[in-house]
Amino acid sequence: MNPSDIPVLVVEDEPVLARRLQEQLKACWPGIDLLPPADNGAAAIAIALEHLPRAIFLDIHMPACSGLDAAEAIVEDWPEGTPRPQLVFVTAYGQYAAQAFECEAVDYLLKPVATERLRKTVERLQRRLAQPPAAPAQDASVGAELQRLAASMRPAAAPLEIVNAAVGHVTWLIPIEDVLYFEAAEKYLRVVTHQREALIRMSLRELLARLPAERFWQVHRSVVVQGRHVSHVERSEEGRLFLALHGHADRLAVSRLFAHRFKAM
Predict the structure, then answer these.
(1) What residues are paired with 174 via a beta bridge?
(2) Quick check: 191 and 180 in contact, CB under 8 A?
(3) Spatial CA neighbour of 227 closest among 187, 203, 261
(4) Which residue has the higher pLDDT, 2 or 44?
(5) What is the DSSP string of 101-169?
(6) For residue 86, which of 111, 108, 60, 112 has the smallest C-alpha distance?
């Protein structure tokens, strides 16, 4: 593969750091096609889906839409039949270094990025890009790694036992075990039970920090379902997965990013 054929995207909300990383990449990886840097998660999603870079270096901590949020959206909306980008996360927070990815799918760099460490990352990327595209089963590991990193970054928070959710002028106190699923809806989350639907003002990431991961599963970037309420998984003719719930008519779409959870044993 000709290096000049490899578009690379840097996502960093600090302009000085973005320029520095681009300069380091030019030195380590001569001839690559560096796309204009994205300074926020929403811009990263738009640029990535338009230009389809082969590698993306994402700052993790950014306002509004984090690098993890952007990565999830990019992987989910990536066009079928096109090799997915290699994702490299960059962060200034050393406490997350212990969660560095061991698999070849994703790498992890600590700010300030050392040039020699970046060279090793580039060598890893070059090996990956020289290989045939990953099979779907291997490709699904990206989603698993994203979830593991996201879980490691959630701050400790008091477990959620009762959900105070509004329906009109009434606030319902809903035991967490009664919740079928949560769904992000603009600035709110929908709380769905067998009896009713209600709204709470909380982000999905804040919610996940207060839910037991073994019971509540993220199945889409906007949906978290309580596993014990899932009856079975249906596959459409197009290969998309949908969850059926016990005693409820809703069918929940499973994004490609989280499909590995429902692989048959």
Answers:
(1) 163
(2) no
(3) 261
(4) 44
(5) --STTEEEEESSPPHHHHHHHHHHHHHHHHSPPPPHHHHTHHHHHHHHHHHHHSPP-PPP-EEEEEETT
(6) 108
Tokens at residue 246, please? 């016990």
Q: Which CATH superfamily does the domain covering 3-153 fall into? A: Response regulator (3.40.50.2300)
- Coil vs helix vs strand at 177: helix
Look at residue 202 and give its three-state secondary structure.
Answer: coil
Other C-beta atoms within 10 Å of 168: how many?
6
* The pair of three-digit structure tokens given for residue 247, joined into one six-digit string: 């005693």
Q: What is the pLDDT of residues 57-96, one digit of tens each?
A: 999 888 777 787 788 788 888 888 898 899 898 888 655 4
**pLDDT attached to residue 104:** 37
Q: What are the distances in angstroms from CA 190 to CA 119, 135, 193, 240?
A: 45, 35, 10, 23
In the numeric block, which tokens belong to residue 253?
A: 């779409």
pLDDT digit string, tens, across residues 214-236 = 999 999 888 999 999 999 999 99
Overall average pLDDT of the 208-219 stretch: 90
pLDDT band at 18; cut points 50, 70, 90: very high
Phi, psi of 255 (to 5 degrees): -75, 160
- What percent of the chain is modeled with pLDDT above 90? 50
Residues 6+ apart with CB under 8 A from 16: none
Q: What's the CATH class of domain 162-262?
A: mainly beta
**Which regions of the chain carry the CATH code 3.40.50.2300?**
3-153
Write down the pLDDT at residue 106. Answer: 66
Q: What is the mean pLDDT of residues 254-259?
A: 82
Residues of the chain with CATH 2.40.50.1020: 162-262
